[in-house]
Write a structure and sequence with these properties.
Strand order of the largest sheet: 2-8-7-6-5-3-4
Number of helices: 14
Strand content: 5-15%
Helix content: 40-55%
Order of helices and strands: HHEHHEHEHEHEHEHEEHHHEHEEEH
Distance between the termini: 32 Å
Oligomer: single chain
Number of strands: 12
Bound molecules: pyridoxal-5'-phosphate
Mean pLDDT: 96
Length: about 400
């Protein structure tokens, strides 16, 4: 990040330039020039938050009891609703007082974890490609990131045996994220069990970022780290209502798992934020207690769109299977392009915004990510334009 005025803290200089901000700039420039850009770049639902949740917010917003500072640690009802949801969904019994902490979306928890656990010089094991905050969070805490390459050959799972022993010794945290952004890959209990074993052996805190747990298709049900034997002894799981209930704008999620880790993250957060607007917390209670119909309906929409994208891209020469989870398509760029060049060509020729894989780390080079979160008519239009690409 450049700082023309010289006022930025050294910490900010540690963070690499944010590619996505540059892409936003390019898209804005196209729009300003009159191009009707269709964005398939960002993982933000086009479907509305279910009505029952909005109603709960409205009702709670009218109650003055919800207008004051919320509790730092979240409403008891919300913590209980989260614990009940975990028990129903994963068969995992969580103590709502000590093992659950509501957060302002999962990004809040994820970005603050390194400040609670990483000292200067500590190592953070982060997947590449991966959600960029795993690395930038480590850097902001003046730790170092050791990248774990995800490759097609390994099913987009890190090769734990390839982590050098000296890196494993220095590592304080390991990030995993399945179902995975950006690859759409999933991990079975066996892989999670191996990661638990690795982290137990090397005394590493295993952080499982799990916001796509409910965005899965064809009956597939992603597994929680906490249902794997030993998982709750080594780690934390980060969860969100953003994707499950079409609530990205509401900023509500939680972290759960090992009690001492949850407590330390809570201790840090009490010094940083003042909790979640209580009316939003009541809406979250409604979301979690209200059953799965809305989420299943959204997944049917995503699954249908995934099939459509795969059909069109396959007709153009790709060989893709729709993913088992997430709303992302992860696909190789055509020969002769790097990922930024391909995304640029698609934006220039078709007015469609895709995300270059390298934005998720060096091992994302050679790929692009497309999100099926545009309304059907816009997605259809984007696919029609892609059919005419000359790449
Ligand atoms: C892998 C992953 N983790 C976390 C988040 C953050 O979600 P939120 O802060 O909305 O809960 C996202 C959002 O796209 C994500 O893709």
């Amino acid at each position: 990040m450049s700082d023309a005025t010289g006022v930025a803290a050294r910490r900010l200089g540690l963070i690499p330039p944010y590619l996505f901000a540059e892409i936003d700039r390019q898209v804005a420039a196209k729009r300003a020039a009159g191009v009707d850009v269709i964005s398939l770049g960002i993982g933000d639902h086009d479907l509305p938050t279910p009505r029952r949740i909005v109603d709960a917010l409205q009702e709670a917003a009218l109650d003055p009891a919800n207008h004051q500072y919320p509790s730092y640690f979240g409403l008891a009802d919300l913590r209980q609703a989260i614990a009940d949801w975990y028990r129903r969904r994963f068969g995992v019994a969580l103590d709502p007082v000590s093992e659950v902490l509501p957060t302002l979306g999962s990004k809040d928890g994820i970005s603050h974890v390194p400040f609670a656990f990483v000292d200067p010089g500590d190592l953070v094991l982060a997947p590449s490609p991966g959600y960029p905050i795993y690395v930038t969070g480590a850097l902001m805490a003046e730790g170092e990131a050791h990248l774990m390459p995800l490759t097609a050959e390994n099913g987009w799972l890190p090769d734990l045996d390839a982590i050098p022993p000296q890196a494993a010794r220095r590592a304080k945290l390991m990030w995993l994220n399945y179902p995975n952004n950006p690859t759409g890959a999933v991990a079975g209990r066996d892989f999670l069990a191996r990661a638990v074993e690795f982290c137990r052996e090397h005394e590493i805190i295993l952080c499982h970022d799990f916001p796509y747990s409910e965005i899965a298709f064809g009956g597939y049900r992603p597994a929680s780290l906490l249902e794997v034997p030993g998982g709750r002894d080594v780690g934390l799981e980060f969860h969100s209502l953003s994707k499950t209930f079409n609530m990205t704008g509401w900023r509500v999620g939680w972290v759960c798992g090992r009690a001492d880790l949850v407590r330390l993250l809570g201790q840090l957060k009490t010094n940083i934020d003042s909790g979640i607007f209580q009316a939003v917390q009541w809406a979250a209670v409604e979301a979690l207690r209200g059953g799965e119909e809305d989420t299943r309906a959204a997944c049917q929409v995503y699954a249908r769109r995934h099939r459509k994208v795969a059909d069109v891209l396959n007709s153009l020469g790709w060989r893709l299977e729709p993913p088992r989870a997430t709303f992302y398509v992860w696909a190789p760029v055509p020969p002769g392009y790097d990922s930024i060049g391909f995304a640029r060509a698609v934006l220039d020729q078709a007015g469609v915004n895709l995300t270059p894989g390298v934005g998720f780390g060096p091992h994302g080079e050679g790929y692009f990510r497309l999100s099926v979160t545009a309304p059907d008519a816009r997605l259809d239009e984007a696919l029609e334009r892609l059919r005419k690409l000359k790449v």
